[in-house]
Amino acid sequence: MAAISELTDEEFLLKGNSACAGCGATMAIRWVLKILGRDTVLVMPAGCVSVFQGMFPASAFDVPVVDSSFGAQSSFAAGLAAAYKIKGRRLKVVTLAGDGGTADIGFHAVSAAAERGDDVLYICYDNEAYMNTGVQRSSLTPYGAKTGTDPKGKLEWKKNLPLIMAAHNITYVATASVGYPFDLLRKVKKAASLSGFRYIHILTPCPPGWGSSENLAAELGRLAVRCGIFPLFEVENGRLTLHKVGNRVAVRRYLELQKRFEGLTDEQIQYIQKRVDDDLRYLELLEKVTSEVNRAGQVDRT
Amino acid sequence: MAEQIEVLTGNAAAAYGVKLSRAQVIAAYPITPQTTLVERIAEFIAKGELKAEYIRVESEHSALAACIGASLGGARAFTATSSQGLLLMQEMLFWAGYGRTPLVMAVVTRAIAPPWNMWSEHTDALAQRDTGWIQIFCHNNQEVLDSIIQAYKISEDKRVMLPVMVCFDGFEISHTSENVTVPEQSDVDSFLPPYDNDLLDVEEPKLLWNGVYPEDAFKFKTIFSEAAERSLSVIEEVHRDFDSRFGRRYEAVEIYGRYEPKVFLVAMGSVASSAKAAVDVLNREGLPVGLIRIRLFRPFPASELQKAVEGSEALIILDRSLSFTRGILSTEVAAALYNAKSRPKIFEYIVGLGGAVVTHTSIVETVKHLLPRIAEEPKGIVWLKSGG
């Protein structure tokens, strides 16, 4: 278990960056870097972070950053990791990308890097839409949410990217939320101690994109987990562990705090509740199945 | 072990060039006619003859992205592709070029679909002329091997820091065997020192390629262009150095044939090989025809070309590329000569598209047909049928 006292006083994401007020992503990234420390090289595609890090010659990061093209981040990272391997340099190659860069435009390259088992820690900060371009729908935008390109609300269910990554049989997959910082820190610490391709998917509420109050990023991060719409789980060597949440709350309570869900009918909210319940049940069964199936035959690529 | 003569295809010659250059990270995706090149490198690695990481990427876009990452990490990187693969890479081509990333790529030239066609044409490589890469066109297998080694030396030179494309024709060079002198490893090692890159220093963190405001963007482009301009003299320096060590002289603009010809053929790649044979025939018959072979396409060696054409009456450009209605080499040559003191007439020929055969006899016939009409005004672009 990570504790506050373990965290360094050093800051790697500096003050004065141009993130929006109440940005969930900055909270997550600040903590992640405190765990990873100075021997980290970040690879970032276009996204909110690549914007709020500042314009040349300013930089909001006190670790080296390579800005890659949109979608090419995991391939940049693959090359960097290969170079460090052959040069014998022990640096952490960490990819920091949003939901669109990961699940949409960069998906082929993320999938390929995972399949190859590249020695990369991939962090996806999921704010559930293309936010820095002004809120457009991605495949990780949830059902019912309004965006600039889906003004009536999205009609499709959110792609389950963490489970897709788990299906690549990679070293480590975890979901995390800014509502549960200690859980996030523990997972980052664990991922950093492993090698091969590791994937952490962090829900990072976005006040302007979600139409929520600036003081609610942490609260929404908690509610998303407590209502079951964003379950916390880990998959290690094929075995899934679901983090049980006591006192589940209704999905409606989470939705009501966000303007992007305004105007949903009762039927739609019931539909969301039903699918969230089903998805949770699916994960519970997956946990049971993956604990029974022997995954010892997995090849260790490290 | 001294240098050895081996019978190698162009692709194998390129693979030997990569091995002798001790490339450390290879990232590649298969495409005809490049495949035997990257397979040969994989074989070198599997046999332990080359110590390198081989990243088997899912697309050419990722192949080049991985090479950029590897180069930033301080490893000597290599990839190879053709045609559609090169087009898929284009976003990354600009990234590598304007990002000043030292690395080398072999482009085994091939026509672009539609219709599907796997034979040679230079349009794939020439369509990338604005991406910020140095482009070298080879006309035989020896030149392919030598150019890969030279390309690293040029690319990694601190005055340059630009990626280099080594282009050669699909099948006509890539799959055709020739005698190739394979240099000794120790000679290559003393010519080409190890590469490193310390941009990503964790003790002194830098932000690479983040957003810039217009004034800075303009400044970066200026700095880029100065490096591109500087590369011309560095390339000449590398050509001389290579010659002094290995005894093979290359020039950005090669002049071939009888001294002070009235008429020059202008060509690149394997077309230039056929043109050399044609010049031999024409010269034996006493006709004052030579060849200007453009080896360096980017940066375009305009002043060398201007010097080469001084006193000549006409150029016959054999263009294996197409930009809408006109060949790309032709537009480049014409642009380079516009302000020249001596400006010969330009007769433009489109030849060999999609692998259509360009024989030396067809070139001889074309020249003989044109010579009596050289005083007349050029009648526009001629599409030269294959065969002959």
What is the compact description of this entry?
Chain A contains 11 helices and 8 strands. By secondary structure, chain A is α/β, with parallel strands linked by helices.
Number of strands of chain A: 8
How does the major sheet of chain B shape up? 7 strands, mixed
The end-to-end span of chain B amounts to 45 Å
| Strand/helix succession of chain A | HEHEHEHHEHEHEHHEEHH
Main sheet: strand order of chain B: 3-2-4-5-7-6-13
Give an overview of the whole structure.
- The complex is a heterodimer of chains A (302) and B (388).
- Chain A has 302 residues and is of the alpha/beta class.
- Chain A has one domain: 3-Layer(aba) Sandwich (Rossmann fold), CATH 3.40.50.970.
- Chain A has helices at 24-36, 48-52, 73-87, 99-104, 107-116, 161-166, 181-193, 207-210, 217-226, 251-255, 266-292, and strands at residues 40-44, 65-67, 92-98, 121-126, 172-177, 198-203, 233-236, 239-242.
- Chain A has an eight-stranded mixed beta sheet with strand order 2-1-3-4-6-5-7-8, with helices on both faces.
- In chain A, helix 1 (24-36) crosses helix 7.
- Chain B is an alpha/beta fold and 388 residues long.
- Chain B has two domains: 4-246, Thiamin diphosphate (ThDP)-binding fold, Pyr/PP domains (Rossmann fold, 3-Layer(aba) Sandwich); 255-383, Rossmann fold (3-Layer(aba) Sandwich), CATH 3.40.50.920.
- Helices cover 40% and strands 20% of the residues of chain B.
- Chain B has 13 helices and 16 strands.
- Chain B has helices at residues 10-20, 35-46, 60-72, 83-88, 90-98, 123-126, 141-156, 185-191, 214-246, 269-284, 302-309, 328-337, 360-370; strands at residues 4-9, 25-28, 53-56, 77-81, 104-109, 134-137, 164-169, 177-182, 207-208, 253-257, 263-267, 289-294, 296-298, 314-319, 345-350, 382-383.
- Chain B has a seven-stranded mixed beta sheet, with helices on both faces.
- In chain B, helix 1 crosses helix 2 (35-46).
- Chain B starts with a strand and ends in a 5-residue tail after the last strand.
- The A-B interface holds A 38-41, 43, 50-51, 53-57, 59, 61-69, 71-72, 74-87, 89, 91, 108-109, 111-112, 116, 118 and B 24-25, 27, 51-53, 55-59, 61-63, 65-75, 77, 91-92, 95, 199-202, 205-213, 216.
